[in-house]
Write a structure and sequence with these properties.
Elements lengths: L6 H20 L12 H9 L9 E6 L4 H14 L4 E6 L2 H9 L5 E4 L5 H7 L8 E16 L7 E3 H8 L9 H6 L11 E5 L4 H13 L19 E3 L1 H11 L3 E6 H7 L2 E2 L1 E3 L10 H8 L3 E2 L8 E2 L13 E9 L8 H12 L1 H9 L7 H10 L5
Parallel strand pairs: 1-2, 1-3, 5-10, 6-7, 6-8
Antiparallel strand pairs: 3-13, 4-8, 4-9, 4-13, 11-12
Helix pairs in contact: 1-11, 2-3, 12-13
Pfam family, one: PBP_like_2
GO cellular component, one term: ATP-binding cassette (ABC) transporter complex
Keywords: Phosphate transport, Signal, Transport
Length: about 375
Amino acid sequence: MKLSRKNGLRATAIGALVVSGALVLTACGSDDNTGTKDGDKKTAAASNIKCDGAKGQLLAAGSTAQKNAMDLWVKNFQAACEGVEVNYQAIGSGGGITKFNQGQVALAGSDSALKEEEVAASQKICKDGKGINLPMVGGPIAIGYKLDGVDNLVLDAPTIAKIFDDKIKKWNDPAIAKLNPGVKLPDTSIQAFHRSDESGTTQNLGKYLSEAAPADWKHDPKSKSWPAPGGQAANGSSGVATAVKDANGAIGYFELSYATANKISTVKLNTGAAAPVEATTANASKAIAAAKIKGTGNDLALSLDYKTKADGAYPIILVTYEIACDKGNKAENLPTLKAFLNYTVSEEGQKVLSDAGYAPLPAEIATKVREIVPTLS
């Protein structure tokens, strides 16, 4: 299906993408999460995977947000393709892109599309080509908190910006109290936690704050490194979630799955809609429905709408991409890279996610990715 289709069709498909991807992000993976309910299904799934000359080791790294989905795909792909090892390091989007542009991995996962300078850097590795963005999963970035006695908290973009910019320091600050009438807020110091590693999650939060609260968030929205003063740093989404869970008065940001797994309360957003919006996969899908494809050619980078005021639309969102060379892949990696991506986006690969309680990619996006992967060279 061509990218020139009307925006309404794109929005519908992309909205469905977030439902699918966000469900991936909200699932709690485990070492035994095969995506099947019995051995027969696993065997059947593995038997339908086309290895297409896959061999040896495929190195990949990046986003922690997609780790649960990647674990499922890797397990089944390796079961089907004897002697093949897919090694995915969940080290954060920035780390994944750095490794990709240094030629250390053949595939990177990122919670944000490549920047122009990153595309330029990729051309040194992708001979006669460049790195391209292939969307795979998406979902909400939750603002999680721990505040004894408060289990229902509403914030808006300006207040969140001031908290993470070290300008609001107490939980009973008038700005917070105004958004939470009738709630007894304690005189507790705010402990704001952020990522210590380069992260697409950090970048997407920054983009949201820059667009939704431009007067209060003056930092570079393109930065994957935490740009604001103050606060405390923790490694990865898991590190931030653990820090928030363990400290009264804490607040942090991470994919919704980490809040769910750790039973962390999440902030409802006052976006200007009729009612505050909760961080859920369904609400994230409503926000991302307005996204547009901004990439050209085989690049499927998306432009997200962080300022939506639509009822029930949760605007702190991300889409995770798989990043690969369109041309110039190393010959020893290419068969395995293509076979693996062909599997992850195939009907069989998507069905594995469904069997585990996830949702498949919408037909339009999946079809486009399926058209691009075989052309990698």
